[in-house]
Amino acid sequence: MRSNVTEYDLVAPATLDAALQILADSPAPYTPIAGGTELMVALGAGRLQPRKLISLWNLEELRFIEVSGDAITIGAGSTFTDIRNHPVITEEFPLLTQAASWTGSIANQNRATIGGNIVNASPAADTPPALLAYDAELTIVSSSEERTLPYRDFHLSYKKVDLAPNELLQSITILRNFESYKTYIRKVGTRNAQAISKVAIAALARLKKGSIEDIRIGAASLREVPTRLPLTEQSLLNKRVTPETISAARAALISESKPIDDIRSTAKYRTAIAAKLLEEFLQSL
Question: Which residue intervals define the domain FAD-binding PCMH-type in the entry (predicted)?
Answer without folding.
Answer: 1-179
